[in-house]
Amino acid sequence: MSSDSIASSAKRGRMPAAERCEQILAAAIKVFSEQGFRCTEVQQIADLAKVGKGTVYRFYPTKDELFRAAVEDVMQRLTAQVDDAVRTVNDPLEHLREGFKAYMAFFQSHPEAIELFVHESAEFRRVGQPRYFAYSDMRRQAWIDVYQQLIDSGRCRVTDPQQMLDVIGNLAYGSVLVNRISGRNESLVAIADQLLDMVLHGVLKPVDAHQ
């Protein structure tokens, strides 16, 4: 092969940095979620991404940084999906419904995400707050405002927006976690409808005031 052909081939093989970074992160998310942080070798990620190990280290100097970047990428996509679902929804009850369903739908499509969160909590708890909970805290006030609007509309028995947020948030995260680690792999979209029905309407029949 001539030097011109080699140069042309190399040029065709070049990839923009952002695209290469995305390729590496996709591979990292898959490998880390399947094998955990400790059992993962950077070479495995490089092989899956079809790049050299040195290329991975050029973007992410340590395995710790690569893992954190993978978790950050997942959290950004989760947040974006929920935000997109509620962006044009003004009614607070529908805002809650659409946000809740979008949250569950994300994990339905990306089951590897919950694995990453579990591994992060296990491996990096002493280093700092897991990114899932850091993101939740950053978004907390915005959701409290939604719950307060719902309370102000007169449709709620509970009048503490923080309590409502905590209960529904724990139900959502707990349901995703249990569904994954139990191996049930039920439809999270269906679970979302069931949870919303029980949270919003309860499980008991209305009590007859004359009884």
Automatic annotation (TrEMBL):
HTH tetR-type domain: from which residue to which, for each copy?
18-78
Q: Does the keyword DNA-binding apply?
A: yes
**Pfam families in alphabetical order:** TetR_N
Which residue ranges traverse the bilayer? none
| Keywords, alphabetical | DNA-binding
**DNA-binding segment(s):** 41-60
What InterPro entries does the annotation carry?
Answer: Homeodomain-like_sf, HTH-type_TetR-like_transc_reg, HTH_TetR, Tet_transcr_reg_TetR-rel_C_sf
Which SUPFAM superfamilies does UniProt cross-reference here? Homeodomain-like, Tetracyclin repressor-like, C-terminal domain
Q: What protein is this chain from?
A: HTH tetR-type domain-containing protein
Q: Which organism is it from?
A: Halopseudomonas salina
